[in-house]
Specification:
- The complex is a heterodimer of chains A (317) and B (365).
- In chain A, a hairpin with a 2-residue loop joins strand 4 (87-92) and strand 5.
- In chain A, helix 2 packs across helix 3 (64-76).
- The relative contact order of chain A is 0.11.
- In chain A, 51% of the residues lie in helices and 15% in strands.
- Chain A is an alpha/beta fold and 317 residues long.
- Chain A folds into two domains: 13-162, Rossmann fold, CATH 3.40.50; 180-314, Rossmann fold (3-Layer(aba) Sandwich), CATH 3.40.50.
- Chain A is built from twelve helices and eleven strands.
- Chain A is globular.
- The longest helix of chain A has 31 residues, at 149-179.
- The termini of chain A are far apart.
- In chain A, the strands form three sheets. Chain A has a four-stranded parallel beta sheet with strand order 2-1-3-6, covered by helices on one side. In chain A, strands 9-8-10-11 form a four-stranded parallel beta sheet, sandwiched between helices.
- In chain B, the strands form two sheets. In chain B, strands 2-1-3-4 form a four-stranded parallel beta sheet, with helices on both faces. A four-stranded parallel beta sheet of chain B has the order 6-5-7-8, with helices on both faces.
- Chain B is globular.
- In chain B, 45% of the residues are buried.
- Chain B is built from 15 helices and eight strands.
- The mean pLDDT of chain B is 94.
- Chain B has 365 residues and is of the alpha/beta class.
- In chain B, helix 14 links the parallel strand 7 (302-308) and strand 8.
- The chains are: A alpha/beta (317), B alpha/beta (365).
């Protein structure tokens, strides 16, 4: 007779900062931990307080998105055993993340050294032949809770499935907007800026309140976008920026205007947005840069006048 | 005579923007490796170069982008028809493409050889580049010249390191500085490996012969930071010379020899800083963190971290450097350079830093 042994695991609580790549990988991360029976807590949505807390921790010159990220990390301290900060470096040749994501884990650890908080990470680096699946398996092992490789693989497969389902959902929503009639404006920016309730959401909401249909350059078929980005910029190497450049190429014929939204001072955006303003000439373009001082009134005035100009051009105002 | 002139006209007029003291090596390499290339030396960097670059660059790109763009424009004005831009692991890898677009938008009919588009990790692509520059390429000769050029770079770095360690203690009336300047000038006209070796031997001997007035335990400061600004004397407003003139032994690890030519060695530094960071944080981060830690362990009197405004990898390692500074109790000065940085402002900060570390040394010993 087979002996069954009941293994009791004392699973930790993992805190996930609601910032940066959370907006890209939310389903993947949450499903993976759930499948392994690990509880997760999420930091509260970005607020003025979180931004200020983060800015106080960070080096002055770092970008707004990372300052917000630190605010989220700080909000999680004391509420979980581990804070989850993955290191995502490269996916392949000319498919890299901004160099800041390679440093993020060690940077966060050093910034919060005094708190003795423990951090959890996975390392995704094509230069070291670690793809996403392997990275997740490695992370499962570092947890040292006795998960078998099969268990980890199963959890990852489920997570990936959930990720794709969530992605298809987003694509479908975008398709719906594309089909409907009205003034369409393409928002170009990292998901962690456009989806952030403090930075990007007010822009989307304000545009909707003016009866404008906001589209997103990052929500397009990623493989096609990566290929199309070569038409605009053959040597661009940042994964997300290539998706955005490709998204602009794919959608610029369908929209009435393009708004580039970036956070000050985003490294890749500083360069690719300049390239877009130099190369994409056939559609009205607005360049919005968000920083710690951004008040909503200034942004709203700029958005209003941009929409007015487009309507004037179309003769509907 | 006419034939000679025709040959001259058919030559490619290639330039590479100003970069520390390495332009003489680039000149030597390009002119000797390819039979159809003439190197156009860009004028030395000035305030005007920076303004030229700044005016035509995106707002918050890192400062070397602006300086290099300005230098490229000056080289084109000086007669170059081709500009080379290097590749790199940070934003440097995207400089070429954007600069090409900017130069073309400005109306320059130039070619920009962007090494990023050839850096695929395959040797075949580099060969394609060489054949593109010189269809009649003599590969064995190219390899020989490349070796000589790397040797030249090593000599420049070796002599520069020795110079900044000792020039502050020169007992004569500026002989040390004169010898160094003469060495760099003579490299500009070096025509063979023998010339390079002779120049190197001469300067080494002269350095030996010049009497120094150096205390047993002088003030030692380690300089680290971003690849371009930390090496380029104009961009860092002569930081090392200023420090040396105050009577400081200046140490800098970050050179082309150490960081680029022997890049594979950088991987070996990772285990030595495992207590501070788990992964590689960026192209120059490992070396800089290791150097800061080593200086601290060897009881240096201070560290100076040099970076250009908006340099992503260097901003990222600042929390680590702050921790090194507080663990080992080593004073650290963080300098951010942009096109507006003034000479006098820097001098004031350096003097204050010098006074602090000098007083501290006296109090501790």
């Amino acid at each position: 007779m087979k002996k069954t042994v009941l293994i009791e695991r004392k699973t930790p609580v993992v805190g996930i900062p609601r910032a940066l790549l959370y907006y890209r990988y939310a389903a993947l991360w949450e499903t993976y931990f759930r499948e392994l029976g690990i509880k997760t807590v999420l930091s509260p949505p970005t607020s003025r307080q979180i931004l200020e807390d983060g800015a106080a921790m960070a080096v002055d010159e770092t970008c707004l998105s990372v300052k917000i990220f630190y605010g989220h990390v700080k909000a999680l301290i004391g509420k979980c055993d581990f804070i989850f900060v993955p290191r995502i470096a490269t996916f392949g040749l000319r498919r890299e993340m901004c160099i800041r994501f390679s440093a993020l884990y060690d940077q966060t650890r050093n910034v919060f050294r005094e708190t003795h908080q423990r951090f959890l990470s996975y390392n995704l680096d094509a230069n070291e032949n670690i793809d996403q699946e392997k990275a997740f398996l490695n992370m499962g092992e570092t947890l040292a809770l006795g998960y078998s490789p099969a268990e980890l693989k199963k959890a990852y497969a489920a997570a990936e499935k959930a990720d794709q389902r969530a992605w298809r959902e987003k694509l479908r929503a975008q398709e719906q907007i594309l089909k409907s009639k009205g003034l369409k404006i393409l928002l170009v920016g990292h998901p962690y800026i456009l989806d952030d309730p403090y930075l990007g959401r007010p822009i989307t909401d304000f545009l909707r309140s003016m009866d404008v249909l906001p589209l997103r350059a990052d929500i397009v078929n990623r493989d096609t976008a990566i290929k199309r980005s070569l038409d605009v910029s053959p040597s661009c190497k940042w994964e997300v920026n290539r998706e955005l450049l490709g998204g602009v190429e794919m959608l610029k014929k369908e929209v009435d205007g393009v708004i580039l939204v970036s956070a000050f001072p985003c490294g890749p955006d500083a360069m690719t947005n300049d390239l877009v303003t130099r190369k994409v000439k056939d559609v009205p373009l607005l360049n919005l840069v968000m920083d710690t001082q951004t008040g909503s009134a200034g942004t709203e005035t700029r958005l209003e006048s941009f929409v007015d100009i487009i309507r004037l051009k179309k003769g509907v105002l | 005579m006419a034939k000679q002139l025709q040959k001259e006209i058919r030559m490619k007029q290639i330039s590479f923007p100003r970069y520390a003291e390495y332009n003489c090596c680039i000149k030597y390499g390009l002119e000797h490796a390819f039979h159809n290339v003439r190197y156009i030396m860009p004028p030395p960097l000035t305030r005007q170069t920076e303004e030229l670059g700044e005016r035509n660059s995106p707002d918050y790109v890192c400062t070397p982008f602006k300086t290099l763009l300005g230098s490229e424009i000056e080289a084109l004005e000086a007669g170059a028809d081709t500009v080379i831009m290097t590749h790199g692991a940070c934003r440097l890898g995207y400089y070429g493409e954007l600069q090409e677009q900017i130069l073309h938008d400005l109306g320059y009919q130039c070619e920009l050889i962007n090494l990023s588009s050839y850096a695929t990790g395959k040797r075949r692509d580099w060969l394609r580049l060489l054949k593109h520059v010189d269809p009649k390429l003599n590969l064995p000769k190219f390899i020989q010249v490349a070796r000589d050029t790397l040797k030249m770079v090593e000599y420049v770095d070796d002599v520069t390191a020795e110079y900044y360690k000792n020039v502050g203690f020169d007992a004569t009336d500026g002989e040390y500085r004169k010898a160094y300047r003469k060495f760099l000038a003579s490299l500009n006209i070096a025509d063979s490996r023998a010339d390079i070796e002779a120049d190197y031997r001469t300067v080494k001997r002269e350095f030996q012969e010049i009497p120094l007035d150096k205390p047993d335990r002088p003030l030692r400061v380690g300089i680290l930071g971003e690849l371009y600004t930390v090496m380029d004397a104009y961009s860092n407003r002569n930081l090392e010379q200023k420090l040396a003139d105050m009577g400081v032994e200046v140490h800098r690890w970050m050179t082309i020899t150490n960081q680029v030519v022997h890049y594979s060695n950088v991987k070996n530094l990772e285990p030595k800083i495992k207590d501070l960071c788990t992964y590689s944080m960026g192209p120059t981060s490992t070396a800089n963190i290791w150097f800061a830690k080593t200086c601290a362990e060897h009881h240096f009197d201070g560290l100076i971290h040099v970076k250009s405004a908006n340099c992503t990898p260097e901003i990222d390692i600042m929390p680590v450097l702050q921790n090194i500074s507080s663990t080992y109790k080593i004073p650290t000065l963080y300098l951010t350079y942009d096109t507006q940085t003034s000479d006098v402002g820097l001098l004031t900060r350096l003097e204050a830093f010098y006074d602090m570390i000098a007083t501290r040394k006296k109090a501790l010993s």
